[in-house]
Specification:
Two copies of one chain form a homodimer.
Chain A (H helix, E strand, L loop, with lengths): L1 E2 L2 E2 H5 L9 E6 L2 E11 L10 E7 L1 E6 L2 E6 L2 E5 L5 E16 L21
Chain lengths: 121, 121
């Protein structure tokens, strides 16, 4: 039997909206989500979990209260639990988030950019 | 303050041995490990956890008792908990593993290819 791999490029063709990560895989209680980021996201934090950003295409920045990190394709960053952060991308940036199932994109901030947290593609 | 991203290419320059994954990041209790695979690994399973393979460069195959999956750069696969598998790469393949801290590369099989499970680069 031939099993099928998960192909990132193919998965990115399945959605277009920004700041609305889609689940592509699960490892134990951890979700792997693809996202397209463009513009300013909201300041927020996740009180119960670290959050991993992996950039596949483009560039983005994550602002913190005391600084920032610039990320480009082939780079990752772990935002520690409870650290306030605000993602930003001038142009569309394709990323993968790795975080526990049920993690809400806007953390404890809520608002219009809050996305469904359980959409598989 | 400028925080530093984790750059995969730069991290891959820091080791050369095959089948000896090195830790580059931690999210909660999950380790992100880079590995260089070439040749046949051993049949094994992980009784307590799923295991994620993400291919950055090259190609590899994972054999199962009932089939196989071919992976190339830009693809991932989740090997379910307790499923016997044997990674293989004809030429050097650069990958990232995502799995709980403490996961042993040879699972419950042991043997000469068992690597240290706690080496950071």
């Amino acid at each position: 039997m031939k099993y099928s791999p998960i192909n990132f490029k193919e998965k990115f063709t399945k959605f277009s909206e920004c700041f609305s990560p889609k689940i592509i895989a699960r490892m134990n209680d951890v979700h792997f989500k693809l996202g397209k980021f463009q513009g300013n996201f909201v300041w927020h934090s996740h009180e119960d979990t670290d959050e991993v950003f992996i950039v596949f295409e483009g560039t983005m920045r994550i602002d913190f209260r005391d600084g920032s990190v610039d990320l480009k394709a082939g780079e990752m960053f772990v935002v520690p639990k409870s650290v306030h952060h605000k993602p930003f991308a001038e142009k569309e940036c394709k990323i993968m988030l790795v975080e526990p199932a049920g993690t809400i994109n806007t953390g404890n901030s809520g608002g219009d950019l809050t996305a469904e947290d359980n959409v598989w593609i």
